[in-house]
Amino acid sequence: MSRTIAITGASGLIGSALTSHLRDKGENVIKLVRREPRSKDEAFWNPVDGKVDLDALEGVDSIVHLAGAGVGDKRWSAAYKSEILNSRLYGTSTIANAAEQLKVKSLISSSAIGWYGETGNRAVTENDRGGDDFLAHVCLEWERAADAAPSVRTVKIRTGLVLDPTGGALGRMMPLFRFGLGGKLGSGKQWWSWITLHDQVRAIDYLIDSDLSGPVNLTAPNPATNSEFTAALARALRRPALFPVPGFALKVALGGFSTEILGSKRVLPERLNESGFVFDFPHLAPALAKLAAH
User: Fold this and answer.
1) 134-174 pLDDT, tens per residue?
2) Which domains does the chain show, CATH number per domain?
3) 40 φ/ψ sector (left φ>0, alpha ψ -120 to 50, else beta)
4) 182 pLDDT above the threshold of 90
5) Can you list the alpha helix ranges (DSSP code H) found in the chain?
6) Rounded CA gap, 151 and 99, in Å?
7) What pLDDT score was predicted for residue 4?
């Protein structure tokens, strides 16, 4: 029997891929939109006003909440930092309240590995403490907002660097590397915890019906340093990686967001592994080779 799943952020990189994946399986997907709905598979919501069209979501089995202002979309001015935080707090509390009223079976609510802050070479799992920088604070408040649905099994997905040539960090890097203009970023010693978009979508689908609740890291089991990552990408594209970008240049170009590029987060998906989920792409080189072929 097919499930009915509502998704916020359905037009984003992860949301659009998840929508296609679920519909290909024969599931019913309702996209939550902030404008007037144009079809029966859309429902209105307004996170700022705390409104959701509950009638349009009657009978929904699960909600996947992916909406939020992109952390890398703009420079981190005081105003944009406030937008990053508030878009998550308003959206998540609105959706969690709706999930509670609808008595859905599960709520999958976005978070990020920014929760851990700077980890250096130390590998961390869901049992480790949170960080103390800006994004760690955002993630802490973000996850707390999801607690507004106490009777619903809620999973807080701490997502890493999602890899796909159509968007995200890899989408920005690949054109440079194809022209032979790529290289390590900063020292290259910082750990990047990544996951393919393919496995990200499979993991969310898996969590919708799993028994897991609370925080779950969505990262591949084998994180890589930035040097390893850029070298593997260059090999996959059969191009040299001769143009390293100094840390100071990234700070000038990206402002506060540069801390996410230059910072180190070595995150392991302990709970996902222990639950029996199997990654199709657990290792970086085969993953990049597959993505580079598209």
Assistant:
1) 999 999 999 999 999 999 999 999 999 999 999 888 888 88
2) 4-292 (3.40.50.720)
3) alpha
4) no
5) 13-24, 78-102, 134-145, 168-178, 197-209, 226-237, 247-254, 258-262, 270-275, 284-292
6) 9
7) 98
